[in-house]
Amino acid sequence: MPPTLASVVRNSALHLTVLAGADHLERPVRWVHTSELDDPTPFLEGGELLLTTGIKLGKSAAGLQAYIHRLADAGVVGLGLGVGLSHTEVPQALVDAAAQRGLPLLRVPEATPFIAISKAVSAALAAEQYEAVTTSFEAQEELTRAALGKDGTTAVVRRLAARLGGWAALYDGSGALSAVAPDWAARRAGRLAAEVDRLRRRPAPSSAALQGRSGTIDTADEDYVVVQSLGADRRPRGFLAVGTEDRITPTERYVLNAAVALLTLTLERSRELREAEERMGAALLRMVLAGEVATARQVAAGLFGGLPEGTIRVLVAAASPGPEAAEALGELGDRAEQAGGKVGEKLLVAREEGAHGPRLMVLAGDHGAAHRACLGAVEEQEGLSLGVSAPATLEEAGTAYAQAERALAVAQRGGRRAVDHEEVGAGSLLPLLGEEAVTAFAEGLLRPLREHDRTARGDLVASLRAWLSRHGQWDAAAADLGVHRHTLRYRMKRVEELLGRSLDDTDVRMELWLALRAGED
Questions:
Q1: 3-state secondary structure 178-234
Q2: In which domain of life is the source organism classified (predicted)?
Q3: pTM for the full model?
């Protein structure tokens, strides 16, 4: 802590006397400044102990009061008046004004040179800086040893909380609480979920400071809280929160920064190692998709502890075009890996550049933690689309991948967040197609018939619908319409003439039926 006015007054060698503001002597002194100007405020930054002999102050009560007001407004923490030169004693009007503003006023005897006060404060400031450096170095050593030991991240959180005399909490990249110290702080850390989520949506590193007593956070606790995202390449890998009774000091800030650096290195690891692991995981996934499951099992046993067992799903994700597409998919992959890692679930994740932009492939257990994390992520984040395969075995992963690709295509065309293969394989085809494309197709194909019906006799659109619904059976379709079969034959001949297409062609019938159904929807 920097020296305070109280510590300066307690220095017996200075022989200082407090004449006013005795209740405010705990203010920290950032510097000592000597000035004989009646307005020295342009040369002050705040936090100074100002020394003067009062040569230009005069004896006017109004002038002395104005002088005190200027100093207090400028953030001066105390005023020392040297007696024996301009003033034999400190003017009572100056004492009264200082007491009114709560500004500590010190009597400096003639025998005490101002330089002695400056040296005393400078020595205290130097001692504070030395202590800060020493404490920071010791804390860095302690935190580094903790990080290199067993349960490194948890140990760092525990030691950081002890160093700050408060509490500390670590969250993973998804915002879930992964470590907290002491244990009683878990509830306080849990209240920060909304703030952590806000930081999760901002590039790392970023931070936020919250004060409970000011009502910034919804809590009865009066902690001063700092939340910091952890990450070196804009993508948050985790979050660190600390809570203390008062604002952290500069020394404590150094300790916090050291913890942030260590945790970032631990969570981030090296870019080369992470990329190598991703390449190995992608290679394994492609081996599985190619049907080389036995070989993939042998390789994965040594590298990843094995492959997913039991029923699996393949998920394929894509992001809307733009510079943030790869980042969004990277975050999705991180969340899947973090969710699976927390419960010991095996999964494979691969990122690839497709013909239409970057893609993310995930092979994970059916409705496991990673599967659920992917579904949750695409619902939360704009611009992501996800296709999910049907449940399958590892040996059926190639087929599952094709299913996921088809489901993704449907999701992208329909503007949907996620589509399951079961939705593609069941129900009507129409909901799976892009609405605008179907509407344009239907309008273009049926336009000649609709124009005819508006200006001529005979309802060709209704007649065509009835004929197609009866699979070309003339008598049944004519009965539905309430007309003679010869009338219906004439109308169908007119349809062929207007469309320039033969109704004997199966493809033509299919396209016309699709257009009619789209018009109904």
A1: EEEECHHHHHHHHCCHHHHHHHHCCCECCEEEEEHHHCCCCCCCCCEEEEEEECCCE
A2: Bacteria
A3: 0.46
